[in-house]
């Protein structure tokens, strides 16, 4: 893997610099390494900091204040005078920006509590800032097809505000890498047994039950999500009895720690049919869309039935940190599984699609999964993964560990297998974790 790190020597020199040296020369050399040096210099004008942590903190504070100005613009309906071509464009931008603000605040808290740059908290901050940059990209993608008098102003303001975030991310990446990757055959370190990753506390008294046949607390999943407490620090377990649930489910960022338990991937089915061709943004097309941190799902089938001719049509989208999905089926055609951002883990899942069907910019591991290619439309190639990282400072990537790539029956009969994506294949064949970078 190509490394774009700024030489560590530079940081060491900075730390050893005598205090008597004007801090301007320090910030100048630090800023030179960022994607937007002018913006960096400007944000550090008043900084007296001479260590890299202080410089990152200062630059983060400016990023937050710029991001807050942008929220004011976005929440002002007149200022946001934009005609959307795809349903959800503005809602996507607003929601993603709220997540960015929360990520920046959390980054500031982590960094302020860190005296040395060597702690594993930096890995969290890198994940938060990479997600923020991804949020900007997704918002701008949606705005591409939009029109209206405010569009140039809004797009310009978004780009300007997020330059500060990109700079923070690059400054942070100068710091030493933080520990080893916490992936083992037992799963991610942040999953514990009581989290339902293994057979767990299904008989929790506070469990909410959803049953299509009326035998539970609710008949739709959306009602249960609405009922679930906001900002819960405890897991909120929602048991979804077997049945077909035709609904678009959204788990917003203020509903963290939601656990969805089904009766089996072929028994509890959540289905939708939104697509880009039918006028939605790719982001908003998801049948189940998760922004709430700490999301867990087990024994559920997530489907988007729009069909290959409807192009991008997401079955499951996760832009939530520390999310895990176990023994689930995620089934669609183009763009089935949107691993949008943050850190995610999938174990023993079946993922079906035709093209780009595992895509996004999360740091994600697939373990023991079946990746099943369906027959694409005439003229389309079979492409399994599309990683969309756009800056070398992000620690994101799609990794496959002990997974199988197979062709669905329709594709087998067509003898189409030789067009499977070889980059992804390579990662499968190795028993070590690879990042698939495009
Ligand atoms: C859900 O249903 C169970 C069983 O009927 C009941 O004990 C529980 O109080 C209900 N929970 C809510 C929130 O209504
Ligand atoms: C949760 O927060 C949302 C958005 O701020 C609000 O609309 C909703 O009423 C809140 N729900 C509860 C149960 O407090
Ligand atoms: C999408 O699904 C809904 C709900 O199941 C259904 O009413 C609608 O007709 C479907 N639309 C298309 C285009 O298939
Ligand atoms: C790899 O997958 C196979 C079958 O899918 C399973 O039997 C085996 O235990 C897995 N190995 C690891 C290390 O997870």
From TrEMBL:
**Alphabetically, which GO biological process terms does the record hold?**
cell wall modification; pectin catabolic process
- Give residue ranges for domain Pectinesterase inhibitor: 22-171
Q: SMART domains, from UniProt?
A: PMEI (SM00856)
Q: What is its EC number?
A: 3.1.1.11
Gene Ontology molecular functions:
enzyme inhibitor activity; pectinesterase activity
Q: In which pathway does it act?
A: Glycan metabolism; pectin degradation; 2-dehydro-3-deoxy-D-gluconate from pectin: step 1/5
Is the keyword S-adenosyl-L-methionine assigned to this protein? no
Reaction equations catalysed: [(1->4)-alpha-D-galacturonosyl methyl ester](n) + n H2O = [(1->4)-alpha-D-galacturonosyl](n) + n methanol + n H(+)
How far does the signal peptide extend, from start to end residue? 1-22
List the active site.
356
Q: Which terms are listed as keywords in the entry?
A: Aspartyl esterase, Cell wall biogenesis/degradation, Hydrolase, Signal
**What's the domain of life for this entry?**
Eukaryota
* CDD domains in the cross-refs: PMEI-like_3
Family recorded in the similarity comment: In the N-terminal section; belongs to the PMEI family.
Protein name (database record): Pectinesterase
**Originating species:** Deinandra increscens subsp. villosa
């Amino acid at each position: 893997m190509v490394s774009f790190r700024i030489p560590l020597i530079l940081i060491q020199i900075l730390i050893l610099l005598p205090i008597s040296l004007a801090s301007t020369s320090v910030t100048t050399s630090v800023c030179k390494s960022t994607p937007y040096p002018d913006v960096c210099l400007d944000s550090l004008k008043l900084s007296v900091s001479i260590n890299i942590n202080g410089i990152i903190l200062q630059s983060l504070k400016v990023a937050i204040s710029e991001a807050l100005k942008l929220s004011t613009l976005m929440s002002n309906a007149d200022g946001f005078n934009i005609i959307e071509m795809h349903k959800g464009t503005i809602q996507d931008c607003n929601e993603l920006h709220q997540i960015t603000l929360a990520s920046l605040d959390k980054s500031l808290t982590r960094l302020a509590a860190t005296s040395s740059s060597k702690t594993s908290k930096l890995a969290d901050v890198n994940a938060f800032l990479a997600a923020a940059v991804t949020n900007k990209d997704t918002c701008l993608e949606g705005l591409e097809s939009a029109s209206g008098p405010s569009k140039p102003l809004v797009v310009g303001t978004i780009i300007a505000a997020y330059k500060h975030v990109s700079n923070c991310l690059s400054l942070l990446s100068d710091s030493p890498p933080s520990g080893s990757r916490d992936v083992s055959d037992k799963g991610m370190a942040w999953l514990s047994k009581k989290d339902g990753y293994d057979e767990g506390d299904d008989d929790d008294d506070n469990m909410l039950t959803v049953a299509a046949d009326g035998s539970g607390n609710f008949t739709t999943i959306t009602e249960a999500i609405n009922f679930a407490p906001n900002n819960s620090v405890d897991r909120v377990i929602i048991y979804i009895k077997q049945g077909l649930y035709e609904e678009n489910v959204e788990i917003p960022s203020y509903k963290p720690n939601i656990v969805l338990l089904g009766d089996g991937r072929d028994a509890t089915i959540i289905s939708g049919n939104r697509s880009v061709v039918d006028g939605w943004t790719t982001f908003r097309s998801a049948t189940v869309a998760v922004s709430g941190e700490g999301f867990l799902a087990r024994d559920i089938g997530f489907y988007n039935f729009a069909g290959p001719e409807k192009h991008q049509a997401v079955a499951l989208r996760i832009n939530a940190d520390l999310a895990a999905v176990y023994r689930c089926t995620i089934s669609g055609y183009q763009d089935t599984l949107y691993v949008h951002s943050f850190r995610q883990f999938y174990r023993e899942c079946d993922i079906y699609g035709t093209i780009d069907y595992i895509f996004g910019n999360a740091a994600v591991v697939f373990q023991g999964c079946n990746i099943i290619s369906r027959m694409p439309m005439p003229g389309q190639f079979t492409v399994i993964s599309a990683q969309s990282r756009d800056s070398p400072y992000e620690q994101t990537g799609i990794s496959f560990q002990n997974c199988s790539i197979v062709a669905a029956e329709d594709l087998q009969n067509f003898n189409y297998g030789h067009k499977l994506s070889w980059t992804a294949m390579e990662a499968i064949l190795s028993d070590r974790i690879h990042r698939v970078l495009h």
